[in-house]
Design a protein that fits this description.
single chain; about 110 residues; alpha+beta; Alpha-Beta Plaits; 2 helices; elongated
Length: about 110
């Protein structure tokens, strides 16, 4: 598959995943890019911006996160059948994650 076709199909996937919801997690935004994976093969990377974890939680519920990951990978198989899609999650606000490590210095 050509890089342009990969990006085009990745863009279709990006638009499809925005708004997906599993439990307390919703995909608010997504970004698609092409880059070499660890084997040096050109691959599709999908970065999903999710709703922040609940205030009392350090992170998202693991069952919800795993279910969302499975759903997005199934959607990726439909959009990019010959291509593995690397999915990563990111928070809307970095402050939402508990980062109270006393040994870590501020930059």
């Amino acid at each position: 598959m050509t890089p342009n076709a990969m990006l085009s199909r990745g863009e279709v996937l990006r638009l499809r995943v925005i708004g997906e919801r599993v439990g307390s997690i919703e995909v608010l935004d997504a970004a698609v890019s092409l880059d070499d994976d660890v084997s040096g093969k050109l691959s599709v990377f999908l970065a999903l911006t999710l709703t922040d974890p609940r205030p009392d939680d350090e992170t998202w519920p693991i069952d919800d996160l795993m279910a969302l990951d499975r759903r997005v990978h199934l959607m990726a198989l439909e959009a990019l059948p010959e291509q593995y899609c690397h999915v990563r999650f990111r928070v809307l606000n970095d402050e939402a994650l508990d980062d109270d490590d006393p040994d870590e210095e501020d930059d």
